[in-house]
Amino acid sequence: MRLRQLENFIAVCNLGSISQAAERMHVAQPALGLQVRGLEDEMGAQLLERHARGVRPTPAGLLVVEWATQTVANAKALKQQLGVAASGLAGSLTLGLTPSVAAAFALPILQEVQRALPNLRLHLTEALGHLLRDGVKAGRVDLALVFDSLGSSPSGAGKLLTESLYFVTASGSPQAQGGSIALAEALEHPLAIAGAGDSLRMAAEHAAKSLDLPLDVEYEIQSVNVILKLVRSKLASTILPMPMVMDHLRAGDLVARRIESPALTRDLHWLASANAAPAAAALQGLVERVMQNQRSDPLLNEAYEMAAIV
């Protein structure tokens, strides 16, 4: 008994005609008739009965066609799983994302992995960039997307995209105006911002130094949620990427103004562990496609130079 024989028998039962099934399955009608009789011999029962318009399954035939349908489906699923395993697209991988990248892309990445790489167990971790670098170096993280605020590409990796940073303040505050804001003006206000080592903090410090201006950090806080509570309370403003505040912008309780003169940006790069699994390359390609497809969101399209994805 072969899978092709079962597929042909299923076609006969579904079409109710040996001649139509033979045409559909690209097999000679006499050969198909012999296959059906051979299956009946193996099962020890009559599986088809003739009537004026063709054939129909007997009660035994109904049982066999139900079993055959499940058997063929299981065989195809097994074949796909074996192919995935042979190609290295199985096993587990840990992907690290910074908070803003996770806010923008984590959900569509997980959805696409489930669809395109169903046998890959993806572990997603969110952390600040310097912590992800440590994780990749130690082998705890296979792949990570990290920002380099000062323009040098880590490990020679190419830039995936450029993220703009925004001056974020409470709606109703004097500085909550429309349009962009000059960096010098943004630095006039007390800020709540992450501590040393964070790429956003480094970008702000580097830009302030280029203008010979101080960075007035009123609150040094490692929690974005706490920072946003301070901003909504009008105790400080902050500098953040768009994805971290999109929900608040839509709700109308915060205002985000793109920082210009000079523009405050960060470049996103891949980092990969030396011992990353073979599926890492496939995951990288999938993530980059997801990023490219998110350009339809107007806020993300404004926040990222999405065309820079390579």
Features:
single chain; 310 residues; alpha/beta; Arc Repressor Mutant, subunit A; D-Maltodextrin-Binding Protein, domain 2; 3 domains; eight-stranded mixed sheet; two-stranded antiparallel ribbon; 12 helices; 12 strands; 46% helix; elongated
Question: What would your notes on this structure say?
Answer:
The protein has twelve helices and twelve strands. It folds into three domains: 3-87, Orthogonal Bundle (Arc Repressor Mutant, subunit A); 97-158 and 268-300, D-Maltodextrin-Binding Protein, domain 2, CATH 3.40.190; 161-265, D-Maltodextrin-Binding Protein, domain 2 (3-Layer(aba) Sandwich), CATH 3.40.190. Helix 1 crosses helix 4. The chain is α/β, with parallel strands linked by helices. Strand 1 and strand 2 form a beta hairpin. The strands form three sheets. Strands 3, 4, 5, 6, 7, 10, 11 and 12 form an eight-stranded mixed beta sheet that branches. Strands 1-2 form a two-stranded antiparallel ribbon.
Layout of secondary structure:
Blueprint: H1 3-15, H2 18-25, H3 29-43, E1 48-51, E2 54-57, H4 59-87, E3 91-97, H5 99-116, E4 120-126, H6 129-138, E5 143-148, E6 161-170, E7 181-182, H7 183-186, E8 191-193, H8 199-210, E9 217-220, H9 224-232, E10 238-241, H10 246-251, E11 254-260, E12 265-272, H11 280-293, H12 298-303
Parallel strand pairs: 3-4, 3-5, 7-11, 8-9
Antiparallel strand pairs: 1-2, 5-12, 6-10, 6-11, 6-12
Helix pairs in contact: 1-2, 1-3, 1-4, 5-11
